[in-house]
Amino acid sequence: MATAGPDRPSVDVRILGPVRLLVDGHHIALSGAKPRALLAVLVVNRRRAVPKTVLLEAVWGDDPPPRAMDGLYAYVSNLRTVLRGAGIPDRDVLRTVDAGYLLDIADEQCDVGRFEAARARGAAAARDGDSRTAAACFAAALDEWSGAPLTGLDELAFAANFATDMTERRHDVLVDRIAADIADGRASAVIGELTATTAERTVDERVWRLLIKALYVSGRQADALTACLRLRRNLVRELGADPQPETVDLEDAVRNHRVPAETPSTRGATTRDLPNIRRRAWLRVGDGERIPVPPSGLRIGRESDNDIVLDDARVSRKHARILHRDDGIFIRDRDSANGVYVNEVPIRADTALSDGDVIRVGSTRLRYGANEEPASPA
């Protein structure tokens, strides 16, 4: 692995913001979007071989020009020239491997690697009950960000997917840091931050639970109950849903002046420890394209304001909803006329979905997946 030594300059690549290459702390210019996209794909896949075909798709999209491969060779050669000019042994760092290329840098040599390492340390500290260390590690992870991931490359599909994925990870780490701060006795200090976050995440129950708890332990019971009411209204208006059981239990504890019971998140297990389905979940209608399940979930029905509109006489106007919950992805029947079936079994309540489940609404079948996408640059 190529690392800095006594006579070797240090490399630092940043992609959690604009793509930047730094050598010994000095910014090395990379002209053009395509060279930056090439470097970004290699960083995302650091220490793994990336096939040339994957690089072509990442840099040029689904329809590369006839001479795109020549262009790829030119961009790789230019990147090697830039590294060599900065005193980096380019053949050690950017290696040619079977059918592709490999960027041989350590996690600490890129911001995305440092972010993930700090997040993992924070999660481990949280599990051990060391809230102060957890909060510091999560804060260090957040400090690696300098803007929207891969700024300026969002017209490329791989960049847009990576940005969506990492932005959701950043949100999870932010919430984990706030939870650790509350557990460490700093509830009052995070109320403003939580209030701003709930304004953006109007039905994110984990964030709302943290706000309710922070208000309550800060001696503001009335404000905590007002937050409970606002969350209930948001859920009904936006999802047609009731609060999760954990939220109901917390509201009951606040109303009756009881110490809120610890949930897995307050005991140290963070949302990042849950199965990594939140960023991979998708639905497919028949043989159509995969439809990612966003954090807000998906509404399914016949009316045009649904996220998935089905032209099926047996589908109700507002038929079903796919929901994110702390313990996974669930489907809910929105009081449809003909019911919702998972693997041909009618559901009676919110039902957890597993990779490969077949959902039937009316006469239409949808497949749910939470597996990894086929080999891709991100």
TrEMBL record:
Q: What Gene3D superfamilies does UniProt report for this protein, alphabetically?
A: 2.60.200.20, Tetratricopeptide repeat domain (1.25.40.10), Winged helix-like DNA-binding domain superfamily/Winged helix DNA-binding domain (1.10.10.10)
**Span of domain OmpR/PhoB-type:** 1-105
* SMART domains on file: BTAD, FHA, Trans_reg_C
InterPro entries reported for this sequence: AfsR-DnrI-RedD_regulator, BTAD, FHA_dom, OmpR/PhoB-type_DNA-bd, Sig_transdc_resp-reg_C-effctor, SMAD_FHA_dom_sf, TPR-like_helical_dom_sf, WH-like_DNA-bd_sf
| Coiled-coil portions | none
Sorted keywords for this record are: DNA-binding, Phosphoprotein, Transcription, Transcription regulation
Named from the GO MF annotations, one term is: DNA binding
Residue stretches making up the FHA domain: 298-347
- PROSITE patterns, A to Z: FHA_DOMAIN, OMPR_PHOB
One GO term under biological process is: phosphorelay signal transduction system
DNA-binding segment(s): 1-105
Per the similarity annotation, which family is this? Belongs to the AfsR/DnrI/RedD regulatory family.
Q: What is this protein called?
A: DNA-binding SARP family transcriptional activator
Please tell me the species this chain comes from.
Answer: Nocardia bhagyanarayanae
